[in-house]
Amino acid sequence: MKKLITLIAVLTLFSCAKEDTGRIVENFNDNWKFSLNQKGDFSNAKTKDTSWQTLNVPHDWSIEKGYQKDGKTAASTGFSVGGIGWYRKHFTLKKSDKNKEISILFDGVYNNSNVWINGHFLGKRPNGYNSFSYDLSKHLNYDGSDNVIAVKVDRKAYADSRWYTGSGIYRKVRLIKKSPINIAQWGVQITTPEVSSNTAKINIKTTIKSDGKADNNLSLNYSILDENGSEIASEKSILGDKFKIISKEIKIQNPKLWSTEKGNLYTLTVSLFKNDKLIDNTSEKFGIRTFKFTADKGFFLNGKKLKIKGVNLHHDAGAVGAAVPKGIWEYRVKKLKSIGVNAVRFAHNPHSKELLEVCDEQGILVMNEAFDEWNVPKLKSKKYLGDNAATKESSKAYPASFNEWAERDLKDLIRRDFNHPSVFMWSIGNEIEWTFPHYSKTYNDVNGSSGAQGYEQVPNYDYKTVKTAFDKNIDGEDPLVKIAKQLVAWVKEEDTTRPVTCGSVLPSVGMVSGYGTAVDVYGYNYRAADYDAAHKEYPNLKILGSENWGSYNEWKSINERDFVSGIFVWTGFAYLGEAGPWPRKGLNISFFDFAGFKTPRGHFYETLWIEKPKVYMVTTPAKESEFSFHKKEGWKFDMQLTAPPVWNMLRKWEWYKVNSKWKYKTDEEIVVQAYTNCEEAELFLNNVSLGKQKLADVIETDHILKWLVPYKNGELKIVGYNKGKKVDEYFLNTHNDKVAKIDISSTKQTLKADGTDVSVITIKLLDKNGNLIIDADKEVTFKLSGPAKNIGIDNGWEMNTQSHKSNSTITHNGKAILIVQATKERGEIKVSATSSTVKSKDLKISAE
């Protein structure tokens, strides 16, 4: 019966929308006109744009133009172009729209956007990551004649970030039609202050936008649906003659809690009525959960202790740049979760609404971060990471606007993302200390001149000494702490239910300055050696590893300490930027590469974070390896720092030099590394045992089992055992270089014909024995037919500077991907791949 009532309610809302009585949200992404670097002012509605490119947004012109070694590009932003782009869209309205509030909502425009409607200037937005809207109502034509929205995107400063940003209207756009009296944008806030296994109290705060005149005929209807669409609660509020913010409490029975095991979600619909006539309505997804941080026992979710196993994630996604469809985030988050990831830090700016939705749905905690820079810019690289040679003009960025825009940008972020259950922290900044010299000077005075720049770990701080050094380096009020306290205050004005954090790279100094106590939970970036001293000196301090190297010792240092809530490894996926020298376009220092292929580091961390038995191995010629074996001393490790001209400390972020293959010169000595969570592992070469080793013997060092093996053609096999029984095995076979077969697969067999849904097509080059051809990369050409388009091609390699907007690519390690996006037509999609004379089977996908 409840389902029937719900269906009637939905049909009623639908019919109201058809009669233009409720809120109408229109997809405003199709058929934009675009021009890049064309001189002139194109804000006037009468300007001719028929010769301009026609495209749909989201659109990222930087990835579209490809990587360029020379000219106006920089290593810091992935050798991608900037410039000035103009977007224009023509649309018409009906006379019945005239008495409505009509607004346009941009999810993200990078950056320095200026917007006009019919030649009237609406406003600007320097920040390229925030969502924003404008009321168009007063300047529109309602007689069927042309309306023109014009957007200027000024990204002349092509080195304005330390990593890839993208350029243009790179997130979705919507046109929203509402009654003049309406529920404000982001005007519904949901909290769950009391939760038990039997009941949950849902608090709803609704902000009403009106002309300020008293009206006794307004009411709000609330309806809560479970994940099956069944109504489980409903309430009504009479607004009275004075209203702006209306609070309502609803209780639901036997709540299904949102957790990292299952992203249970509910839907709240809030409907505004006048004289029993629907005039506005909106829906919000939400989850019911409780969480807390403690200074001694760490983090608890729904009353259960949970160690945060997190990664940092940038907002770009390889071949599609910054214009990322939701399906790509589904693909990526699913992969992260498969190796045990339960949290993501949005590094280091607001990310897309679609990614938050995926984290909600899949049960991933989110540290939502606002800024990488405050009012003082960080240095940017021109040719290679660490040269800090980008000019002032090319690197002009958000710090120039911070003092004017920070409050609005921060509060808009919180309002937009308030109801997402995945969001459990707000971060006000990342490594801000680098921009305030008295912090690094204090650190160096205490630890030596190379301490801060080298990221050396100096344990057991004498905080009295740090305090003395800091006081000598600061005269008057600390500007960093002053800004931090203001940012925290602004967060608390919007949300008191979530803690505020930051990513601090000099936490020893931050604790004596007051930075560490300005936030609720103090994030430590690359300072695991500080944990014990900080906990001893400040026993009430809540500590989190907000950014960590992806080494075993980083995880071990957190896993062994209850008082450290968890870790955020740098990074979950490879990202563009922080690059160079050419052709290194980005950094694959991650669990998955640009294409989504799991890296050896990803396999290693899977053995740490997943209980399912696993064994995996990689190989390295002994002459190249950082590991060496000595009969008397056993295994030794000698870190090979990154070669000039790149910053030598980049090696701390990189993984070992390893190969996922078994193909070398006969009798060449090969170091075999095995990653496992099994009690024991045994190595076999051509079915001859090379010895069994116990994981317990290496847990205190690097968690890696190692063998030194003279190479022979054939099969290398590793077997994992628990309690003496085989529980997993992994093979590497010598392959030949001739392609005999192309294996092709798709992440989805069916796509929604909605113009946005995507599938990732993976191809692997195999020899006649079915072995992956990992070190003889070849050109592969994809053929696509049917109602779909190619939106990106990639091989996952950080040195790959081929265009992603192509049908062909060179494989890397024998693999490549094609990203296929459905159109709005139904039908059969066919994909195949060809390399030389070898063709894959036809892969068929249904668009429905």
From TrEMBL:
InterPro entries: Beta-gal/glucu_dom_sf (IPR036156), DUF4982 (IPR032311), Galactose-bd-like_sf (IPR008979), GH (IPR017853), GH2_Domain-Containing (IPR051913), Glyco_hydro2_dom5 (IPR040605), Glyco_hydro_2 (IPR006101), Glyco_hydro_2_cat (IPR006103). One of its GO terms (biological process) is carbohydrate metabolic process. This is Glycosyl hydrolase family 2. Keywords: Glycosidase, Hydrolase. The keyword Metal-binding does not apply. Signal peptide: none annotated. It holds the Pfam family Glyco_hydro_2_N. Belongs to the glycosyl hydrolase 2 family. Residues 668-727 form the DUF4982 domain. Residues 296-432 form the Glycoside hydrolase family 2 catalytic domain. GO terms for molecular function: hydrolase activity, hydrolyzing O-glycosyl compounds. It comes from the Bacteria. Residues 191-289 form the Glycoside hydrolase family 2 immunoglobulin-like beta-sandwich domain. Residues 26-178 form the Glycosyl hydrolases family 2 sugar binding domain. Residues 742-843 form the Glycoside hydrolase family domain.
